[in-house]
Automatic annotation (TrEMBL):
This is CRC domain-containing protein. The keyword Nucleus applies. It comes from Carya illinoinensis. Pfam families: TCR (PF03638). Residues 793-804 have a biased composition (Basic and acidic residues). GO terms for molecular function: DNA-binding transcription factor activity. GO terms for cellular component: nucleus. Belongs to the lin-54 family. Keywords: Nucleus.
Length: 804
DNA sequence: GAGTTTGAAACT
DNA sequence: CAGTTTCAAACTC
């Protein structure tokens, strides 16, 4: 997608009116007002379903191999998102701001649990970043107008950006020690700087202000307002920092921008390929993990574009970045989401922080060359989720670029945390998609030293993994760093062993390829769309940034044979229910997630990790050709049975009632056997358990309804473990959730009146729960024809009524 | 740590 | 599409 013109999506976009109303008057706010998480979910699902199924899919719209065909852009056409992208691309000549708008909503998706790419890939998500975009731009027609009104005249800004790049290109080359980096000739810092320029544009400010306009106050809660506002502040301050060289003390609001820089700075210390993070960084990393991943991911994309296109011309690089816009809307969002997700799952607080970056530095982040992700894998990464990100990040070691010293100061500012938490709140919504996407796979491998990042596990990863992940996040950054150091010093064999152990524990996976050159799907890294890293024990590895072209061409080749070769293997069960309730209930659980293609086990009985289903912690399905299936997560024959579990909603209702009465009882063992498995996934934490509980609730068809009924159950654990920031984030979610759409959804259920009452009685619990609802958004198409949840609910309701 | 088993990926 | 080979992870000893 080098140019929008060549992009079918862009071509299909509808003309954008040049007479757009003022930003404050933009329908975008109406859109926000009317936007419910559910709606977003639906949009996402549609997209995912489209891209994930084996059904005929639209021909790849990408003209560049760097964009993963897996990333479905068909939704763009449908929703006219393309119009927005196209508009942005053509009129702003930049993706920066535009792309993030949608992110506001999506970024919030936190939670990707595992930190490993493997999991993520396996599980992960196929989160498309597109989803994020998609959500944000659902009302494409509105967005373009908004953008136009708010960003009109950005071309001038872009111009400045280009100039800035030109002026700094030389410096960059001098400081770069990485070949790839040198080729780029584009300094991350420059990009940041240029970004700042853009963001300082008055029109941009106006645009942001629009979010806080009086008119939108009733829609956007305090949290939401903070973001846009803080975003402005970030930009201004950041710009000031850059222009003024260094600033000793920076307001916390700048964190989003400074984090990326900080990360890069830290990274430059380990050019040896080691993923070990400087302790300094590690200390501060707690606040930046999500950001870092996110940034790198983005950076990778940007770098790729640059590298691919014209390394000698900074402007060209910028152009390339811009070229990503059409997709990037989703892309960026996805990237952000993913990283955030992983992080989020680990630590809500961190999530908030990381999320804040989305709006400000995501795209602006430095662009280390050769970052872990394959360009092509970006789409996939998104799909995969944070894990990929994580892995990728790990690669930064040798390619990261020097960063201004002032970044350190920024990091040290304690205010950043608080501010970021607030600022990031708004974005927490965005992660939904990612999580969903993750429905896919979950084997994550966290290459990232900071284990908490674990994402991906996220997989498209199965939500299961995601749910588990939070625990991992509790590992201290220092611990991770230490372990990474250790790992890097190991012999290949030891690495392998260690890696294996890590995998078992849910950490990162690394390959040990000997003959595939890490250019075949045998290679876990390659299959995950990430570059091999120092901790890999592979031999004759070509899956490295320096062989990017080879990697990409190989990927293309493989994808030509099998377009879904790099797609998450684990998909979530989705329903076709018109009722939004279904969406909420689409948690990846043993019964809801399945291996897309199914396993073919003959001897392992699907009881060992040889079995991909088992490995992904999902049950076998009818699509499996396994013999003697005894998959503890669900055997083939149980697949249908699991489906029937949804019909147990009425039972859950009873449970909910018990909860309301103060009963500690949460679920009936018989109603949800799968939960036991889920719990076994990770020894962890309250959060996990809470999530599991939630998941179990959701598992049932009436999940959403029940959930609302028993927010109390979840609330203590979720909120308690997450800390104050969680609340902040939740607040935003809650506000979002309390829209009419949600009510409508509830009305569809038999106990609408009760739900409402419950909500009002325990708003907090609801808030906590809402976050999960969003995460539960299904990202994959149904593997088999399922009875719609709505119909199930109806049946349940009918049965329940009859019983009473 | 070496060797075996296993099943996905790749190949024919 | 089926059968075979290759491969690397998972597993066992």
């Amino acid at each position: 997608m080098d140019s929008p013109e060549g992009n079918p999506v862009a071509a299909s976009s509808s003309p954008i009116s040049s007479d757009s109303p003022p930003v404050q008057e933009s329908p975008f706010f109406n859109y926000l007002r009317n936007l419910s998480p559910i709606k977003s979910v639906k949009a996402v699902r549609y997209t995912q379903r489209f891209s994930e199924t084996n059904l005929p899919t639209p021909p790849p719209v990408f003209t560049s191999p760097r964009i993963d065909p897996q990333r479905d852009t068909s939704f763009l056409e449908r929703d006219n998102v393309a119009a927005a992208d196209s508009f942005v691309h053509e009129n702003f000549n930049t993706q920066l701001n535009v792309v993030h708008i949608p992110s506001f909503e999506k970024e919030g998706q936190l939670c990707s649990p595992s930190g490993c790419i493997d999991e993520y890939l396996v599980d992960p998500m196929e989160v498309d970043s597109t989803n994020s975009t998609h959500l944000g731009l659902q009302s494409a027609g509105e967005v373009p107008q908004l953008l136009q009104g708010g960003y009109a005249g950005l071309k001038g800004t872009i111009k400045r950006v280009d100039d800035a790049v030109d002026s700094n290109r030389e410096d960059r080359a001098l400081t770069s020690c990485d070949p790839a980096e040198k080729n780029m000739n584009l300094s991350p810092l420059k990009l940041v700087e240029s970004s700042v320029d853009l963001r300082n544009d008055e029109r941009f400010d106006d645009f942001l202000k629009g979010f806080t306009s009086e008119k939108s106050k009733d829609i956007v809660d305090a949290d939401m307002k903070l973001d846009p506002v803080s975003g402005v502040q970030h930009c201004e301050r950041h710009a000031a920092q850059i222009e003024g060289a260094q600033q000793d003390e920076v307001d916390g609001t700048c964190q989003s921008l400074h984090e990326p820089l900080q990360i890069n700075e830290a990274c430059e210390d380990f050019d040896d390929g080691s993923r070990t993070l400087p302790k300094e960084f590690v200390k501060g990393a707690n606040n930046c993990r999500g950001t870092r991943r996110h940034l790198h991911f983005e950076a990778t994309l940007a770098c790729k574009s640059i590298a691919t296109g014209n390394t000698a011309n900074p402007k060209a690089s910028i152009t390339n970045l811009k070229s990503l816009a059409p997709i990037s809307s989703s892309w960026d969002a996805a990237g952000c989401t993913l990283s955030i997700t992983s992080q989020a799952s680990c630590c809500p607080l961190e999530v908030d922080r990381s999320t804040q970056n989305i709006g400000n530095s995501e795209i602006l982040s430095p662009l280390p060359s050769g970052i872990g992700l394959h360009v092509n894998s970006i789409g996939r990464s998104m799909l995969s989720g944070s894990d990929v990100f994580t892995s990728k990040n790990s690669n930064l070691s040798s390619q990261d670029k020097p960063v201004p010293e002032w970044s350190n100061d920024l990091v040290k500012d304690p205010n950043n945390i608080a501010n970021s938490a607030i600022a990031g709140t708004m974005f927490s919504h965005a992660d939904l998609d990612q999580q969903e996407s993750q429905a896919g796979v979950a084997t994550s491998s966290t290459s990232y030293p900071i284990k908490s990042l674990n994402p991906p596990s996220d997989s498209p990863l199965t939500q299961i993994e995601l749910q588990v992940a939070p625990c991992e996040g509790r590992v201290s950054a220092q611990q991770n760093a230490d372990s990474i150091d250790e790992l890097n010093q190991m012999s290949p064999k030891r690495k392998r062993k260690s890696t294996a152990n890590k995998s078992e524990s849910g950490d990162c996976k690394h390959c040990n390829c000997k003959r595939s050159k890490c250019l075949k799907l045998y290679c876990e890294c390659f299959a995950a769309g990430i570059y091999c890293v120092g901790s890999c024990a592979c031999e004759t590895c070509f899956n490295k940034p320096e062989y990017e072209d080879l990697v990409l061409s190989t990927r293309e080749q493989i994808e030509s044979r099998n377009p879904l070769a790099f797609a998450p293997k684990i998909v979530k069960q989705t329903t076709e229910s018109p009722a939004n309730v279904t969406e909420e209930g689409n948690w990846t659980t043993p019964s809801s997630a399945r291996h897309k293609r199914g396993c073919n086990c003959k001897k392992s009985k699907c009881l060992k990790k040889y079995c991909e289903c088992y490995q992904a912690k999902v049950g076998c399905s009818d699509g499996c050709r396994c013999d003697g299936c005894q998959n503890s997560f669900g055997i083939k024959s149980d697949y249908r049975r699991a489906e029937r579990c949804d019909n147990l909603s009425h039972e859950k209702l009873h449970i909910a009632e018990s909860e309301e009465n103060g009963s500690s009882k949460q679920f009936s063992p018989t109603s949800w056997e799968g939960i036991a498995h889920i719990r076994n996934l990770d020894p962890c934490s309250e959060v996990s358990q809470a999530q599991l509980q939630l998941g179990s609730n959701i598992q049932s068809s009436a999940a959403s309804l029940h959930w609302r009924y028993s927010p109390v159950t979840l609330t203590p654990k979720l909120c308690g473990s997450n800390g104050p920031h969680e609340l902040t984030s939740d607040s935003a979610l809650c506000n979002m959730m309390e829209d009419n759409d949600m009510r409508e959804i509830l009305k569809d259920t038999t106990n609408t009146h009760r739900a409402e009452g419950q909500r009002s009685s325990s708003p907090r619990g609801l808030r906590c729960g809402r976050k999960f609802i969003l995460q539960a958004v299904p990202s994959f198409p149904p593997l088999t024809p399922y009875k719609t949840v709505s119909s199930k609910l109806k049946n349940d309701h009918t049965d329940s009524t009859a019983n009473h």
